[in-house]
Amino acid sequence: MTLAQLISSLNLEQVQGGKECLEQVVTGLTADSRKIEAGFFFVGVPGSQVDGVAFLDQAKEKGALAALVSQNSDIPASVKDSDFAVFRSDDVHLTLAKLAGQFHPVHYQQIAAVTGTNGKTSIASFLRQIWTHGGKVAANIGTIGIEGPKGSEYGGLTTPDPVGLLQTAQRLEKEGVTHLALEASSHGLEQKRQDGLSVDVGAFTNLTRDHLDYHKTFEAYRDAKSQLFSRLVREGGTAIINLDDPEGAFFLQVAKARGLRCITLGQVAEADLHIKAISFDGQRQIVSLSGLWGDCEAHVPLVGTFQASNALVAGLMAYAGGMERDDILSALAELKGACGRMELVGSYGADAPVYVDYSHTPDSLETALKALRPFTKGRLIVIFGAGGDRDPGKRILMGQAASNAADYAIVTDDNPRSEDPALIRAAVMEGVENGAEVDGRGKAIELGIKMLKEGDLLLVAGKGHEQGQTVAGKVLPFSDHEAIRAVLAASDKGRIL
Q1: Are residues 310 and 354 in the same domain?
Q2: Do both 47 and 85 map to the same domain?
Q3: How far separated are the first and last CA of the chain, in Å rounded?
């Protein structure tokens, strides 16, 4: 496609260079200066650290066809008033997403996105499984990467950049995928990374303190999340809202103000799908429901009442897209947990299970531990830490959450990043009443497993699916799963799933 065709629907101002570039063929689109090639359209996104306008020299030298920058960015003197074509936009983030949608067009039968502090990965994975059970060719993209008909691919960002996201979506469509589930992070929503897609169904799970290093206030964090309904879900689309969360009413109001079809879930009587009761049968939960689906039961083969809620949110997203209730209930009974989300990895002896969970906020950690309590006959032990270069205020809260819900806490390293791990651990320990501090995550896991007795349960929290640990600016190979399996494999008592 020519540059004129690519930007035809966008209100861009060309501030320098000739008009002849408009009839030339665009060979690629990128906001990453390292990926610029001849014929590319380079988008200089203004970031919190660096403004992409600084790379216009590089774009010109590499043969880029043209570049786009913000109205507020100063074009470098070396490029200014040259024959290199430069366009301006009032909203570069949104324009980049729209350009990505134009350059990598997709035509899915259904696209759904879920936001919230916790549960996004599980819900996106559950929705893919439900769709697949119903005969659809489905995939999900998010924190754990891509899950689809051809297996799983690990990824690094909950919401990839617009070009990477659309390239992936286009590739999956060519592989036959017709239904796509996405996680919508607060960063991704605020930076409009998914605006190149037409989202049919959006869902809200819950909201607790997280990412305040970026958003600064809880209200700003909440407002970023609410953009799923105020902007991203298409006109005439559907919003699924969990009313059991205190912020559910706020998100419902945003969705209604937009004119979206709204379906609510919760234990509150006014919910469209009312959770009347939850009972336990071994590792399975039986959820009694009324309302939208009539009087029925959902059998969810997962640990944790929050997982039952997550499963039902996914079920309602599928329902909004046209799936029948009975097909959804049948799919729920066969769900498998997402990688690193309340995942049973093995046991130390016949009755001392070891779980891995991604819970890395005070609320999610306490929620995960409370969910495991009904399945714990002896002591509930947790291994966790707190990330460096992130909201320091939640470190003591992490320690308090562990003390509130576990019998013994082992505080170790998460991703210390550029900070001193010992100082982070000390801050977490201020909130711990009964526990120990261990330098080194591998050593902590070994200690936690070896102190297990019959009836005890160990939760290794915080990193979930991650395959690396960021220490002093370097990403070192590390997997909770592998560390646990190594300890279990070295013991006669170890059992690996």
Answers
A1: no
A2: yes
A3: 51
